[in-house]
């Protein structure tokens, strides 16, 4: 039986996939096959088996594979790696050794008490590369597991404008409850590339490839049609080149053939994978020019949030019982000096913060600033910071957003969130209050108090809560807060209902005779968005009809004016690629005249 495996939780431009043959359908054998197929092998020879296997449900979600689950060859098994997400790309942990007699002897000796300290030292050194890392890297470079470069055509701004227009029209035609999800999920158009080939190159091969690109620069710019848009991750768009019988598409195919033959001739040992076909062309978009300014604003916002909610007292700031500090004392911290921020930057962030996290005012000639909610410091008094809610008429809707399962950064694993809430109720989780929003899920009026990727909505029975003595408050940015009962909890008997946001399925109160397995079907939320489902970014879901509108849209005739050699990086923070070499196409004789 041949199985296909994919990794969940790894960042990068494309989901790693592998195919392996498995003679047994047992869960243990499938984990062994997945580990070897995906190269989960330590340099010391240990095979790191995945902790969990997941299979896709008919609704497009992931469900953990059990021992008695039915497995067929058509299904893709998704693997949760046995280490933290992203480490396989950062440290390059690939299959570099096989199970030989030396590795088995090493494993046997490691069980002896006298050899245990040495074994731990060798294991930690091997995880960082080890003493033999240069030799291993030389072996890996001969046959690397992933492409290192790609050759692409730079597409002009006409297709960017066409794609942006399509996205705006789609958002405008959507229903009001879907419009916010669409705005959050659609990727802004940046610089586009049409990938012609992906290459596995060494540093000494780069000059040869550059010479081959110069030889084809005598061609004119290409004009051809693109059709369809589809997104994956947060940086990649996919489109299809239309074979409309025009000279532009024929020239595009001819360029691809010419480059493939040139690469094979000049570098016979290089391994290449042609990406050009009549069905799909990868189109990679870079970060927009405004992204750098957004990153600076995000950095300042995160620091203000941390200080004003959690660390003001530890940093020596004089905080009043209403949670405010003097702005001049705040900007005197070393963070502002080291990053060049001043009072004007703080005022700008307070004014333009999308979630209205902060308040700034002038009091007796002194500017004061505070966080509107989310404090952990016990010195903050509710009555001086918040507005009490005394009647249920003031709060017709009160919703708490949460998850089925969520990644725990300290435990390095997924933890059950909704099952724990069903047992223990809602807790403040280290903060002073439990957060709610006073609007329905998907409403454009929801600014703060609920994450956009929440998968479960818990409705609070406000009249019953007030009757039991639960105090509710409203912050200045319209977030409902509560400290709970005398134990600091909001028990489940105060839940009016709980629904799954994506499907509308009722989770609470539990139905009589409900199947527990059915309730837990799609509780797994991977960090990496899957390209083959209709799930979009940040946990939102776009209807299939909207995806079909994107896939079939005509982008019109586009222009490719340059050829580029790009180096793959696979880092979402600094970008998925960088341009190593660029050559512009020369104009034809007719264009020169």
UniProtKB/TrEMBL annotation:
A Pfam family matched in the record: AKAP7_NLS
Entry-linked PANTHER family: PUTATIVE PHOSPHOTRANSFERASE, TRNA 2'-PHOSPHOTRANSFERASE 1
Native source organism of the sequence: Cladocopium goreaui
Function description: Catalyzes the last step of tRNA splicing, the transfer of the splice junction 2'-phosphate from ligated tRNA to NAD to produce ADP-ribose 1''-2'' cyclic phosphate.
Catalytic activity: 2'-phospho-[ligated tRNA] + NAD(+) = mature tRNA + ADP-alpha-D-ribose 1'',2''-cyclic phosphate + nicotinamide
GO molecular function: tRNA 2'-phosphotransferase activity
UniProt family annotation: Belongs to the KptA/TPT1 family.
UniProt keyword terms in alphabetical order: NAD, Transferase
An annotated GO BP: tRNA splicing, via endonucleolytic cleavage and ligation
Protein name: 2'-phosphotransferase
Top EC category: transferase
Residue stretches making up the A-kinase anchor protein 7-like phosphoesterase domain: 147-265, 517-583
């Amino acid at each position: 039986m041949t199985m296909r495996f994919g990794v969940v939780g790894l960042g990068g431009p494309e989901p790693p996939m592998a195919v392996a043959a498995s003679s047994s359908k047992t869960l243990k054998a499938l984990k062994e096959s997945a580990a070897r197929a995906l190269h989960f092998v330590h340099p010391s020879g240990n095979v790191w088996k995945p902790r969990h296997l997941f299979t896709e449900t008919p609704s497009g979600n992931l469900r953990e594979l059990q021992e008695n689950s039915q497995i067929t060859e058509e299904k893709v098994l998704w693997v949760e790696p046995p280490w933290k997400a992203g480490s396989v790309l950062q440290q390059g942990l690939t299959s570099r050794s096989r199970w030989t007699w030396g590795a088995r002897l090493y494993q046997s000796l490691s069980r002896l008490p006298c050899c245990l300290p040495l074994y731990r030292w060798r294991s930690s050194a091997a995880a960082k590369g080890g003493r033999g890392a240069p030799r291993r890297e030389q072996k890996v470079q001969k046959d690397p597991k992933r492409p290192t470069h790609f050759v692409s055509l730079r597409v002009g701004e006409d297709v960017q404008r066409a794609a942006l227009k399509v996205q705006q029209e789609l958002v405008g035609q959507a229903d009001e409850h879907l419009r916010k999800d669409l705005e959050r999920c659609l990727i802004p158009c940046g610089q586009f590339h049409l990938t012609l080939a992906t290459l596995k190159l060494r540093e000494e091969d780069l000059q040869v490839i550059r010479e081959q690109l110069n030889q084809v620069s005598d061609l004119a710019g290409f004009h051809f049609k693109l059709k369809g848009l589809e997104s994956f991750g947060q940086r990649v768009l996919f489109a299809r080149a239309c074979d409309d019988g025009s000279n532009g598409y024929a020239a595009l195919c001819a360029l691809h053939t010419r480059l493939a033959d040139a690469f094979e001739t000049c570098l016979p040992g290089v391994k290449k994978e042609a990406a050009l076909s009549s069905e799909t062309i990868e189109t990679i978009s870079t970060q927009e020019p405004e992204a750098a300014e957004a990153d600076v604003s995000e950095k300042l916002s995160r620091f203000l949030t941390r200080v004003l909610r959690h660390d003001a007292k530890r940093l020596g700031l004089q905080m009043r019982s209403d949670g405010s500090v003097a702005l001049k004392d705040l900007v005197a911290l070393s963070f502002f000096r080291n990053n060049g921020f001043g009072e004007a930057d703080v005022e700008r962030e307070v004014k333009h913060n999308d979630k209205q996290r902060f308040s700034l005012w002038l009091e007796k000639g002194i500017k004061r600033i505070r966080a509107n909610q989310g404090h952990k410091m016990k010195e903050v008094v509710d009555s001086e910071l918040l507005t009490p809610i005394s009647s249920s008429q003031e709060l017709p809707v009160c919703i708490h957003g949460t998850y089925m399962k969520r990644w725990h950064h300290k435990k390095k694993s997924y933890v059950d969130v909704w099952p724990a809430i069903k047992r223990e109720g809602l807790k403040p989780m280290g903060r002073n209050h439990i957060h709610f929003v006073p609007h329905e899920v998907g409403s454009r009026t929801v600014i703060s108090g609920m994450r956009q990727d929440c998968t479960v909505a818990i409705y609070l029975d406000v009249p019953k809560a007030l009757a039991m003595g639960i105090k509710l408050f409203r912050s200045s940015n319209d977030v409902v807060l509560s400290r709970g009962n005398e134990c600091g909890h909001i028990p489940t008997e105060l839940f009016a209902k709980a629904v799954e946001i994506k499907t509308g399925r009722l989770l609470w109160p539990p139905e009589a005779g409900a199947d527990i397995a059915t309730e837990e079907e799609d509780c797994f939320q991977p960090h990496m968005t899957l390209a083959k489902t209709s799930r979009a970014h940040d946990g939102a879901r776009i209807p299939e009809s909207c995806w079909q509108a994107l896939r079939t849209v005509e982008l019109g005739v586009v222009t490719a004016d340059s050829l580029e050699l790009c180096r793959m990086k696979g880092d979402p923070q600094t970008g998925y690629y960088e341009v190593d070499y660029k050559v512009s196409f020369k104009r034809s004789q007719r264009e020169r005249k």
